[in-house]
Amino acid sequence: MVKPKIRLLFFLVIILLLAGCQMNRNENEPVVKKHSEKKEEELPKTRAFQNAFTRGFIASTDEVENGYYAFTSKTGHYTMLFPEDGSISKQSYSNEESKTESFLAGIKNKGLPNASLSVSYNANTSNTAKGLQYSLKFLKSQADMKEPFHQKKTNDSVIYWSTFTIDQDAYGYGAYIHPSTGKGGIEMIYSVKCDSAAKCVFDKEVKNQASRIFSSIRFDHK
To answer: Is 126 helix (H, G, I), strand (E, B) or coil?
Structure first.
């Protein structure tokens, strides 16, 4: 198993690498236009669409809400909001028979620290009391979390989230999200690099972005 500090430092490297790569909105439009039918020069000049691998997860060039596109998992089991300034590392992506999926995304935020988002989905995860206990314990070990989890419920999912810091290098939010009923769940770790000249300070807008992404998960276990 990868040690928590090594894993988080790896996230920071990805932040720097993806944030340096590549650098319009159609709001309130009910008609979805397939971006595959558009010429490359017609695509939005956002990191999500300028990265060929990332745009393979996004069905429409229309934003669902300001700054976010609708992301559809290749498993077909969940959707989420994806930042327009984000791009997914192709090398980090894995999908095993649509039962598990994982990837790492770098987010080059405007006016906020660059961030990384780790996503890991497992269709077979048990959400019984014992299964949930195991999932939260595993998440805590992955991000070296020391704070208790908070619970939040949406229309069709339950979110357990907490904060973490790693020395003075990074801080962020980790979450385990599962459907209100049934199996399956997603582990998410959202992290940002601390300002090297100052102590790690949790930014309210960073928290808002992490929370918005966590809360946007919608499961579809047909």
So the answer is: coil
